[in-house]
Design brief:
heterodimer, A: alpha+beta, 6-stranded antiparallel β-sheet, 26 helices, 45% helix, 16% strand, B: 6-stranded antiparallel beta barrel, 5 helices, 28% helix, globular
Chain lengths: 737, 159
């Protein structure tokens, strides 16, 4: 059993190599607790795996990509995804693999096991952040076990762990992870128990649900709850859940939810005697460790098994104290995401469309000044409400494509961890639909030069009635998006920005969205075929969910943007009246003062520092493959966007979906905001335009007109031609040498 | 012009080659010197030795200054040293400067060079596989090996 430690071989001195969880389980088994048998793969196996063929260095390169302090949540996810992909594809050193295969096969055969992390830092800093690392149940066979071991190791660098990297003391040179491979205990009823209720130390708390324990621990099944007096043991209160609907059951390759049979749905999962037996188990664990315990248990037949025990203070301690817990809260289960999708597609989007249409129908010019003030306030409240919906529902739903990406990478282990995005590009994005309509209008202007003149004049009704009709249809469908950019005082009805854009597009045919990747259907087949037949339906459902998530990631801002545009329109009307000397000047001034455009982010300002220090090569994420050169157009205001000309590199804080109309004109995209799945990256991939995101200094340090080379394969942006002699003082130039 | 494999200390030429071989096998990084318009330019690069002493490989993105320089003048020098920033390095460190011409590889030659390079630097796989990454082979004409502070040996390399 080379490399694997049995519980009886683990003593307190092994703590630095087996981690707190394995050490506790070994101690409990020795003390006679019924703990499912296990083997521990100590930290040195992780180190050997990482030392083999440069994995440590690759992790180091990933972590050094960018200063963590500058990373957004999404970038942490990207970082963790790439590291996970490295682990999934990395081979075991042959000797280690042989030892593991032999040891695992001999102890567990093909029988199902659970594969769990045992972090070395646990019980110290890590103890406060339980649940950061991966664990898997119902893993059958040595191959699958080795695969899960890789994923548990990779979870040392999970996005959640990276969030708490300081507290965990994460360091690519030193950190390591032990793994527990444990006989799978499939109980009929499972749960947790606090030997002492943190809120009332005289009590214990038991939570229990039908099925496997993981559903109780991660909160996906609402448990029955009992408050129990410790001495003498006596049930004080039973709090049943609103309904017992589902249970998590063992399935091939993991676990799945199933509806509870009616008989069980009406029955508490534990009898009063059993509740007291669980409390007694927790009390014994407390006695063993000498401090209050938080245990996980399962009941198999008549047998009550102890799955885990840790100090009460450990659980969920990391939550709630800062914004990080908000981010972790975005991670949703498949079930949760399905419900969210139904809500968004069935209710929110139609409502957003109705709201925008209703607002657009209001004739602002006919309102009295007082009515206009009220209208601005009403629109502002509506806008606020939609921002809340955006934060609470649209943003979490973006996790749909991430969840799919994780599953896809696990199943197919592609070289490019973002290969999965080529499967998501099915079904139209609103902004692409708009761009296609724009391209049609631009083509007309290209073919009929006289249209440019009437566009400039603001009316083509006489010169080209057919074109005017198309233009009006476009405006009805999409609105004049150039005024949605914010900050523009007057836009309603002013066609100049759109006219200019059409002329620019007519001057040089713009890029068209790429057809769906030729191999997308092949990848889709490969993805579905990687599941056993009985799980393919679920896999297809996940893919469909991810596609909806991808679409919404781009469309959501357009939906909210239309509502925002109606607010801006009302504010513009207010300003116009003020300028013209309105009657209700004081009220209008008050309501407009509240509308003062938010200050541009600090990043949007131009660099004012030492002019002798200039960027040469900036690093970001390779968010859209390709290579292009072109002059920079740095977007700091809507005017910059208007001046955008074909062949320039779009440099901006973040590609807003309301900006995507210039993307087809762009040679490449460079964004400050980081992420592989943000709007800019999505649109760039749709058009096959090179894109680098997450360049912290993009807007600050690149100047409009700078010659840029954008390498979307490597994620680097090179500024200038690299001359070595141009700036030399007279007489010291190189050419004289 | 050159005195092949001569050592001013009168040492064993085969021994100098062996020292050189060990140095190239042990070190991961080299300083690459290029030139444009009379202006020298130096870079730290990850390198890998070829099958014989006659070739060294390194990679660079095509948007870099060194790539531009190499396009206009392929003559280069590569410095490989085992100094570790210790005071004792003065006496104990060795350094070899290889001089020759860099040639960008394509097709099969590129694949073979990348395989050799990745055996030495497996962590640079993504970098090496990117279409924008150029792979160079430097054909070395001569090495200048410096040991024991000022003992200098020239080693000519048969093409």
């Amino acid at each position: 059993m080379r490399g694997l430690l049995a519980p009886q071989a683990i003593g307190p001195q092994d703590r630095p190599r087996v981690g707190g969880k394995a050490l506790r389980l070994a101690g409990l088994r020795r003390a006679g607790f019924r703990v499912p048998d296990f083997l521990c793969l100590p930290a040195e196996a992780y180190r050997r795996f990482c030392a083999f063929r440069g994995l440590s260095e690759r992790i180091g390169l990933e972590l050094a990509r960018k200063d963590f302090a500058e990373m957004r949540w999404e970038e942490l996810w990207d970082c963790a995804t790439r590291i996970r992909s490295l682990f999934l594809r990395h081979p075991f050193p042959p000797e280690l693999e042989a030892g593991l295969r032999e040891g695992l096969a001999r102890r567990f055969g093909d029988g199902p096991v659970a594969v769990r992390s045992s972090a070395l830092e646990e019980d110290t800093a890590g103890a406060s952040f339980a649940g950061l690392h991966a664990s898997f149940v119902q893993v059958s066979g040595v191959d699958a076990t080795l695969e899960r071991i890789r994923l548990v190791w990779a979870s040392l660098w999970s996005d959640a762990a990276l969030l708490y990297r300081r507290e965990l003391g994460l360091d690519p040179e030193r950190s390591a992870m032990a793994v527990i491979v444990q006989e799978m205990a499939v109980g009929e009823v499972s749960g947790v128990c606090f030997s002492r209720n943190p809120a009332a130390p005289g009590q214990a708390v038991v939570e229990a649900a039908w099925g496997l324990n993981e559903a109780v621990v991660d909160g996906s099944v609402a448990p029955d709850r009992w408050l129990v007096d410790r001495t003498p043991p006596r049930i004080l209160e039973h709090q049943p859940p609103p309904q017992r609907r589902r249970r998590l059951v063992a399935a091939p390759e993991g676990a799945r939810f199933e509806d509870l049979p009616a008989a069980l749905a009406g029955t508490p999962p534990l009898s009063p005697t059993e509740v007291l037996a669980v409390v007694e188990l927790a009390r014994r664990a407390e006695e063993h460790f000498g401090e209050p315990q938080d245990i996980e248990w399962t009941r198999r037949g008549r047998e009550l098994l102890l799955l885990q025990s840790r100090p009460t203070t450990a659980r969920r301690g990391g939550e709630g104290e800062d914004a990080r817990s908000w981010y972790l809260g975005l991670r949703r289960s498949f079930e949760n995401l399905k419900r969210l999708r139904a809500e968004i597609e069935g209710r929110r989007i139609p409502e957003a469309e109705r709201t925008a249409a209703e607002l657009a129908a209001v004739d602002l010019a006919r309102l009295s000044d007082a009515e206009l003030v009220a209208e601005i306030e009403r629109r502002r409240a509506i806008r606020r409400r939609w921002q809340e919906i955006y934060d609470a529902e649209f943003i979490p739903f973006a996790h749909g494509m991430r969840l799919f990406g994780e599953v896809y990478n696990e199943r197919l282990k592609p070289g490019d961890p973002y290969e999965f995005t080529s499967l998501l590009r099915k079904g139209g994005l609103l902004s692409l639909e708009r761009n296609r309509a724009l391209a049609r209008l631009a083509a007309a202007v290209r073919e009929r030069p006289e249209l440019a003149c009437c566009l400039d004049a603001g009316d083509c009704a006489e010169a080209a009635a057919d074109f005017q009709r198309e233009l009006e249809a476009f405006l009805r469908r999409f609105g004049d998006f150039t005024c949605e950019l914010g900050g523009r005082a007057l836009c309603a009805g002013a066609l100049q920005p759109l006219a200019r854009l059409l002329r620019e597009m007519a001057r040089r045919p713009a890029a068209a969205p790429r057809p769906e990747a030729a191999d997308a259907s092949r990848l889709e087949e490969a993805f579905l075929a990687s599941f056993p037949p009985e799980r393919r339906g679920e896999a297809a459902e996940l893919l469909d969910l991810a596609r909806a998530s991808w679409r919404l990631r781009d469309d959501d801002n357009l939906h909210v943007g239309r509502i925002e545009a109606r607010l801006r329109e009302a504010e513009a009307e207010g300003r116009r009246r003020l300028a013209a000397g309105a009657g209700e000047a004081a009220a209008l001034e008050r309501v407009l003062a509240a509308a003062a455009a938010p200050a541009p982010p600090a990043e949007a300002g131009e660099e004012e520092g030492d002019p002798s220090i200039r960027p040469r090569q900036l690093r970001g994420q390779p968010a859209g493959p390709g290579f292009a050169r072109g002059p920079a157009r740095v977007i700091r205001s809507p005017d910059d966007l208007e001046r955008f000309t074909a062949g320039e590199v779009l440099v901006c804080d973040a590609v807003d979906p309301r900006m995507t109309h210039v993307v087809p004109l762009a040679a490449a995209i460079v964004e400050r905001r980081g992420g592989m799945l943000i709007h800019g990256a999505i649109i760039a991939r749709e058009y096959g335009i090179p894109c680098v995101t997450g360049v912290p200094e993009a807007v600050r340090r690149i100047r409009t007109g700078d010659a840029l080379a954008v390498d979307g394969y490597l994620g680097i942006v090179t500024v200038g031609g690299g001359e070595l002699c141009g700036g030399d003082p007279p007489g010291g130039g190189c050419s004289s040498a | 012009m050159s005195r092949p494999a001569a050592s001013p200390a009168g040492g064993d030429p085969a021994e100098a080659r062996e020292v050189l071989r060990r140095l190239l096998a042990a070190e991961r990084f080299a300083v690459l010197a290029t030139e444009r318009e009379g202006q020298p330019y130096a870079n730290l690069v990850a390198f890998a030795p070829g099958e014989s002493l006659a070739t060294l490989f390194f990679l660079t993105p095509r948007s870099t200054r060194k790539y531009e320089n190499l396009k206009s003048n392929p003559r280069v020098a590569l410095l490989v040293a085992d100094s570790r920033n210790r005071a004792a390095d003065l006496a104990v460190a060795s350094a070899a400067t290889g001089i020759g011409e860099a040639r960008e590889l394509a097709g099969e030659g590129r694949s073979e060079a990348v395989a050799r390079f990745l055996a030495r630097h497996p962590a640079l796989e993504d970098f090496a596989q990117a279409p924008t990454c150029a792979v160079f082979a430097v054909g070395i004409r001569r090495y200048i090996l410096v040991r024991r502070f000022q003992e200098v040996t020239e080693i000519a390399i048969e093409p």
